[in-house]
Amino acid sequence: MATPTAADDGYDGYDALVADVFARDCSSRRIVENLAGKWGMLALAALHEGAYRFNALRRRVDGVSEKMLSQTLQGLERDGLVHRDVQATIPPHVEYSLTPFGERVAAKIVDLIELVQDEVNTTSAR
Q1: Residue 106: is its pLDDT beyond 50?
Q2: pTM of the predicted model, to two decimals?
Q3: What is the pLDDT of residue 26?
Q4: Is the pLDDT of residue 65 over 60?
Q5: Are strands 52-53 and 93-98 parallel, antiparallel or unpaired?
Q6: What is the dihedral of CA 58, 73, 94, 80, to 10 degrees?
Q7: Burial grade of 107 (CB within 10 A; 0-12, 13-18, 19 or more)
Q8: What is the distance between the alpha carbons of residues 121 and 28, in angstroms, rounded to a whole number?
Q9: How far apart are CA 72 and CA 102, in angstroms?
């Protein structure tokens, strides 16, 4: 039996390079899942304001536990959205900021947050 070729199965060799968030194993889905959680969106929106140390970021994102913020930041760092800068001081000084990709994503999230806040303010003013 002959082995199927690209012409036989419609595979053109480029399919593996195209991200599809609806595909179960696509890495873009994991990134969207990390963003879709409330802490991911809020952490990115806060970091859009500028770099933060961990405890300052935790105060800014009111209600997040230390454990959840730590897990969220690890995921966002793994996804290439957040940069973790450890300075060799005593005690160590760790600051979080956005990568260029994180800046672009955070700008969209901030636009969404502002849209929702404006709608809530307009609706509640009626």
Answers
A1: yes
A2: 0.79
A3: 86
A4: yes
A5: antiparallel
A6: -140
A7: middle
A8: 33
A9: 14
